[in-house]
């Protein structure tokens, strides 16, 4: 893998700056806190950091509502803090990928303030404005991901504006060339500052249907009733053909890529949550090497942690996306932490967390880790009074929102609030049950979840077959995920028992074990031509 290809097979660690480390005692994480903890991130053996938004924002959606694309919110620090953080990251050989939320702005962004001020100001067409229907109702039936219609009435313009998320996140009009140019200018600002890449938030939402056609009802197989559509949210009852994923985006992504390519070694990863159409969308966004470098879908972010599901996701991806690259993740700041999602009992959480990283680190593709998963943190149980996520506040208690995965990092088991802050009340509570899993408790313990993460990531680094080698699945029964990764001379066999019973797997003809690899958390054994796996156990060998 050459330096320009560093992203291929890379391990990316997602930092949610609000909850990483507070350095000024206001109960909120900040960029100085990220800098302070960079040696810890480097110690995990990751290649890059994806930083969730730290831009100027009223924080209605925790920074995914940007009011200045080219500055740091005072809550998180200053541009100088950003530069210092990046310099230190680069010194430690860590790349920095920043989150670009280009699909929408905050309603406090000067662009929107101007746009909403009249129907004929210079930015009048920068957002998606439309007249009411003759009966006064919204222009289309489009729905917001966060509930309710995707249209908000504006009393000054006496028109509706479109928002795919909160009403305070108005959707930019990508059909307007000035908008596209202004956004690319912001991207250039960060390229000039030296960032290594971008995670593009909701990259398939950039363009809406110009003709403003109504979405048809949800087709049974369209998959739009995905993980972010709890039963209570009618969003999933619509097939989102017209409010997002329009063909014009392909041209925009080409201009975005051309800009990146003016700078050496930059990379991009797009977030594509497009129901059953996701793989088609990813294929269109990554083909040809002149658009996005890679994308991720929501495939592994659901409750299914079974061999058949993982096999189907990987095979479907590489069958549908023949000219593109994937970034897999089990967790992020939007979904229930996977130690809770995949474990059937509290007692098996640590084992499940270890098994999950063993599987993830062995897949073909790049991978994304979410802060705290390396500690095996479970989802925090929060009271309604503690919630900050508007999505959760709206649908509580049927859907508890995303705060349960956003609580602060526990660094020190013995300290108040896990050492995250000196404030008595952090912005979200640090769950008491996280103290026993704090970094200082697990550090240096080879058999801890943290120790296993470090071992697995080090293992991945030293085996070329794991970075971008082929991946061939073997049939090993419904509980066992088995595959061979190969590149050049190297052939590695993996078998993971994802079930709760012991299993014996007979090796296929032609596969013979040359050397069993000794990894922590892998206690599978081989005897003659059979593998023996305990429940939630793994096995790896050179074959
Ligand atoms: O999320 C995109 C998205 O489609 C969400 O519906 C996501 O699936 C949902 O939050 C899961 O419960 C991105 C960001 O990751 C998210 O944090 C933002 O709230 C959203 O965009 C709007 O910017
Ligand atoms: Ca702070």
Structure description:
With 543 residues, the protein is α/β, with parallel strands linked by helices. It folds into 2 domains: 3-104 and 177-459, Glycosidases (TIM Barrel, Alpha-Beta Barrel), CATH 3.20.20.80; 469-542, Immunoglobulin-like (Sandwich). The chain is 24% helix and 17% strand. It contains 14 helices and 21 strands. An 8-stranded parallel beta sheet has the order 11-10-9-5-2-1-13-12, covered by helices on one side. A hairpin with a 2-residue loop joins strand 19 and strand 20 (530-533). Helix 5 runs parallel beside helix 6 (249-260) and helix 10 (349-360) runs parallel beside helix 13 (449-461). It is globular and about 80 Å long. The mean pLDDT is 96. It binds 1-O-alpha-D-glucopyranosyl-D-fructose (TEU) and calcium ion. Residues 14-406 form the Glycosyl hydrolase family 13 catalytic domain. Pfam families: Alpha-amylase. This is Alpha-glucosidase family protein.
Comma- or semicolon-separated keywords:
543 residues, alpha/beta, Immunoglobulin-like, 2 domains, five-stranded antiparallel beta sheet, binds 1-O-alpha-D-glucopyranosyl-D-fructose
What is the second-level CATH architecture of the largest domain?
Alpha-Beta Barrel
CATH structural fold name of the largest domain: TIM Barrel
Strand content: 15-25%
Number of strands: 21
CATH superfamily of the largest domain: Glycosidases
- The overall pLDDT average reads 96
Low-confidence stretches: none
Share of helical residues: 10-25%
- Record the strand order, biggest sheet: 11-10-9-5-2-1-13-12
What is the class of the largest domain in the CATH system? Alpha Beta
**Structural class computed from helices and strand pairing:** alpha/beta
What does the largest sheet look like? 8 strands, parallel
